[in-house]
Amino acid sequence: MLMNAGIPILSIILWLPALGALLLMFVPGEQVARQRQIALIVSVVAFVLSGLLPLGFIPNAEGAAPGWTGIFGFMQQGSTATLPDMLFVDQVAWIPSFGINYLVGVDGISLWMVVLTTFLTPVALLSTWHSIKTQARAFQVLMLLLETAMLGVFVAQDLFLFYVFWEFSLVPMAFMIGIWGSGNRIYAAVKFFLYTFAGSVLMLMAIIALAIIHRNALAAEDAGFRMTFNVMRIMEDLRNGSLALDTNVARLMFGAFFLAFAIKVPMWPFHTWLPDAHVEAPTAGSVILAGVLLKMGTYGLIRFNLMLFPEVSRWAAPAIAILAIIGIIYGAIVAFAQSDMKKLVAYSSVSHMGFIVLGIFALNPEGISGAILQMVNHGLSTGALFVAVGIIYERRHTRELAEFGGLWTTMPIYGGLTLVMVLSSAGLPGLNGFVGEFTMMQGAYLSPDLGWQFLAFAVIGVILAAVYLMRMFGRAFMGPVDNPENAHLPDLDRVELASLVVPLVPIVIIGFLPNLFFAGMQGSVAEVVQHIVVGVAGQ
Amino acid sequence: MLNLIWLIPLLPMLGFLVNALGVWRVRDDAQRERLAGYIASGAVVLSFLVALVAFFQLGALPGEERRAGVVLWEWMGTGRFHIPFGFLFDPLSAVMVLLVTGVSSIIHIYSIGYMHGDSRVVRYFAYLNLFVAMMLCLVMADNLLLLFLGWEGVGLCSFLLIGHWYDKKEGNFGRGVATPAAAKAFIVNRIGDAAMLLAMMALFFQFETLTFFHEGAGFLETAEHMQVSSIVSFLLLIGVTGKSAQIPLFVWLPDAMAGPTPVSALIHAATMVTAGVYLIARTHVIFTDATLGWVTWVGAITALLAATAAVAQMDIKKVLAYSTVSQLGYMVAAAGMGAYAVAIFHLLTHGVFKALLFLGSGSVIHGTHETQDMRKMGGLRRHMPVTYWTYLVGAGALAGIFPLAGFWSKDEILAHAWTEGQFLIFVILVVASLATAFYMGRQIAMVFWGNQRDHTYHAHESGQMMTIPLIVLAVGSLLAGAMNLPGRHALTHWLEPVLHTHPHEFGVANWVLAMVMTLLAVGSAFVGWRYYTTNEVKIDAKVKDPLYHYTGDLWELLEEAWFFDAFYEKMAVVPGFRSLAAFLATVFDKEGIDGAVNGVGQFFTHLSSQVRSFQSGYMRTYALVFLVGVIVVVGYF
Questions:
Q1: Peptide bond before A269: cis, by omega within 30 degrees of 0?
Q2: How many other C-beta atoms can be found within 10 angstroms of the C-beta atom of residue A77?
Q3: Which among A333, A479, A512 is the nearest to B167, CB-wise?
Q4: Whether complex ipTM tops 0.95
Q5: Is B234 touching A (CB cutoff 8 A)?
Q6: In chain A, what residues touch B78 (CB-CB under 8 Å)?
Q7: Chain A residue numbers touching B586 (CB-CB < 8 A)
Q8: pTM, entire model
Q9: ∠ at Cα A106 (A103, A112), nearest 5°?
Q10: Each residue's pLDDT tens digit, B233-281
């Protein structure tokens, strides 16, 4: 019903934050409270609207008309009914001479990324409610622009449009680090910008090359065929054989896309920009960076590497899985050695994102859907951990583990909530992290390309996660209060409480009812996998 | 009631939620404490009553139909991977549920007295309720992944409760510092859990399900006519060595004594640590002979080493901790020899008498104002008569003295080893049981006999809230053997549909064995008691144990529990990991990887300063370069 009403709901969600940013320009600079309220309201409205999207993806008992009734039906029986692959599509010609369109749409793979983005943006705004004092309006504007850019990355179905959003998302984040960061912020901002930019330049070349090759291939049969960047069209032509890529060309393109995404994820050994960026970024920046920006990399791997180059994906899977596993173990060991809590959480991301890449390159429904769910999970738990670190940084202006001890005594609510986040990150069953982690590990185990040898190493990461997280929690939150500066810290205020409790809700829900989230992705994931299997069989 | 079995874990879960979300807000201290204790205890007692009803309803069914299952919803479902959120209530689950809820009820009530005045008492009861819920989830799960949820959940509660006094700077003697002990328990268990994860993935790979029983399609049912790799069961064994504190992962349990004593009784003696034994019994179908050999030896050697270590401990709770490790070794060894019902029998009796001993030691600690060093005790039987007599019953049961509970179950294990022809195992277990009797005799002498050696405290008997649970458990320790008396073997028959084990014929040889063992136990306990009562003057906190005179440095080997912990923490594992982490973080990552990245950056900065000369500013140069570029691009495609 929603899709047929003719309301461009997806475009509204996409541009609402940007409009909010525009509106903020007209609010006088000194009215900081009002600016905050406007930004928060806009982002919450965007979240509420995005809550409509999953309705399109949940089949009811008959697998037909979607709706809330379907959710309960799904929970009871676990439907596998397939659904239309791209919903809420909006299309407007943009640069017709090059076949570039404003083309957005959502499928089961982007669905939860969109919801994650709209969910975490208000959380991030709450997390810096009081701490951003200089140029507050600019900060809110950048946050909202960033939201539009990230949403654009997840919904763009035109390669060029995708690239524009992809690069544009760098700008607000780099400014955020550069302006509101701490000590070494300029270095971190430049490094963040240049490193990820360097990766995506190759991707741009691959995008243009793909469009040109596609044009040439189709123009050979239909002289009137014009160039297009429509990724759905290109994918269709790849699948029906109208467009056949030379193996070496396909591998080169795969490599170009992969490099851009691997830097973003970040996969070992392209990870060193991440700790620098995190340490310098303000809390909201870290939340968004870890929560959403990294997911752009893993999302890209599924959307472009797997969907455009299924044969190459399969060919490269073991090598990429090895990199992923090195990242899992390496990230965990280096996280253990950190004395700065934020750096510790940053390196834990390297480890956790390694699991996600491993799940993706299992190339089966279990691995990929587990990985998508884990992207959401990592966004929630790591985002919340950054919020937690930010809260204590506001009070003490340090994040050194040695400075703390016994925080659970002085700030019991804060300690309890942080513990839940730590456990979620460590993959404790009953919370969200376990579901994603186990599903994608199971997927990798079932995968004919990977198998148990990979898992035997991956589970070391599970052990080490407990080691570094317990070290952090034990040092900072348990033990006696031996530093007098910690003795009289106030517990959470309302805003801080909200910024930790809000992510807690989906963390618990996913832990027990992950099917609510698995449901929407089934159709799209099955399609991805099907073409990998068919593509390889057809060779 | 059998379709309402989900109430059993739900009730303590609700208790946890009410305490965690509501009760801590109550402002009045006394009222808050009372509410927390009553809500928590009430939830568990209710759960026990529901379990009791369900148990009798299950018993009313004919033997082969005794299996009730409720699937609440599908927990995870994607691709081929489908895991239900469902509970199972069969004879094995039933006895575990009764033990868990029964002992928990008693310990909850005891805790109301023991934790009186504690500053975080609401948290304590909330965790305790959460623990019971998770333990029930563990023993009632109808699939391995949900079992793992309980498995990890109880591990979390163990962590939280060991760390309950996390802010104490220096504990009493032997109590150590709670925070590292809690973290250690969590991390060491994680090693076992990682093996469990691999085992589950492997099982799913083979069977495409992790459900135990599902109308013939559960993996335990299909596995009966399918070969399962020994590696899978070996991985499960690693998981067991973590949770059930076996060699080589037992090192966390002695440290876990930093937690409040009722916690030690409930989690680290009666219930959680037996989860590994339950796991073996539940999944025994997939254990191959090769793995079972390992299981037996791991159990037997643990039983012996831990029993000898218990001899040399000075902390009243550490003795019991090593004793628990040792008794778990008996259970694991029994399971390894295929005597699953006997292992469960010992699990149940041990759950009762070890809970009694721990609660008794808690009463002692309480009555001596937080003294845990046995060298500072002595003569307490005069001040604490109820504690003394009940403790004596527990000690007798542990030592295996006729007709107390431990006698029946331990004797069955020994008898099984004998009849199965496992003579070496038999000898090891007999020696371990001699050590057991000895250290209990020693402990009774040091704590309750002689004269009080430290007068900084005024010893007194504990209140009724604590002594009544002791009496209840003492009665239990007297009678628990009756559930599986030779000849009738009620428990073995009850478990037969699940465990497929048949009771041994109890012949004359068994009677002889039983009599010899009792005599040996009594003798060994007497020697222990006698030596430490007559040498009482030599017991002093400042000097070595009187036995040191005879054993020499061997004593330190025992005191340090054969140096496992020292090897991990001081010599190899932990220091090695720390240096590796430091190297990777400060050298490899910073100088190596990031150095290379920055090097590339500097290279381009350098290059651009050279290239700058091309930026002549002449329009025609740019135009030329542009033109060449266009020709190249267009020409290529």
A1: yes
A2: 13
A3: A479
A4: no
A5: no
A6: 365-366, 369-370, 439, 515, 518, 521-522, 525
A7: 337
A8: 0.93
A9: 140
A10: 999 999 999 999 999 999 999 999 989 999 999 999 999 999 999 999 9
